Every structure is written in structure tokens, then in C-alpha cells.
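[Q] Does anyone have a clean C-alpha cell version of this?
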Amino acid sequence: MKKTAILLVSTLMLGVSASAMADSNRWNNHHDYKDRYDHRYDRHDHREARWSNDRGNKYGQRVVFKRGDQLPSAFRSNRYVVSNYRLHRLYEPPRGYNWMQVQGKYVLVDSKYRVYRVA
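[A] Here you go.
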């Protein structure tokens, strides 16, 4: 009788502790806030909808350059001109042409900003 009572009490204690551990696991994960901020990246970027360049492409999107195309006016400033072309493993541009680095590409343009070569 005494053994049965001890066995019954120990079984109840084991069941209570197991359910307490399972319940504590649920509350231990409250520090995981990663999913809380994921919605930030789902919002529409309104800046892209308002501004566009002269080719009709939205800023922030890639522009594909082909020979004969006109360089968009947004990229027609001296800050895009590559003056140290040898450092970038480019050949010397002919007279009247410039290498320009636009969106990670090297573009050889003439004085009227027509694309001559894309490297």
C-alpha cells in the first residue's frame, strides 16, 4: 500500500513537472522578435512611383544600356566619369569619348551621351 502511494505521488509529480516544462517552453520564446519587423519590407516604396527618368524607368530599377542608346539625363554629370580608366582595366577612350560608371557598368559615351560600348 505504501509503495503504491509513493508510486502514485511520484507519477503525479512527474506529470506536473512535464506539463510545467512544456508550458515554460512556450513562454521562453518571447524574446524572438525577428518576425515582428518583417512587415517593414513589404511596404510599397512610394519614392519609386513619383520619380522617373527620361526613359520611363523608375529610379532604383536597373537601366539596360545598348550601343546607340542615349544615356539618361540622371547620369550625365561629372561624378559618373571614370578618369582613372586603367585602374578599372579599361582602354583609353578615343578623343571626345568618356568612360562612365553607371549602375555598376562601365559605359563608353560620346560628347552627346550616346552609348558607344558597354563593358
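[Q] Thanks! Anything notable?
[A] Residues 2-35 form one domain.
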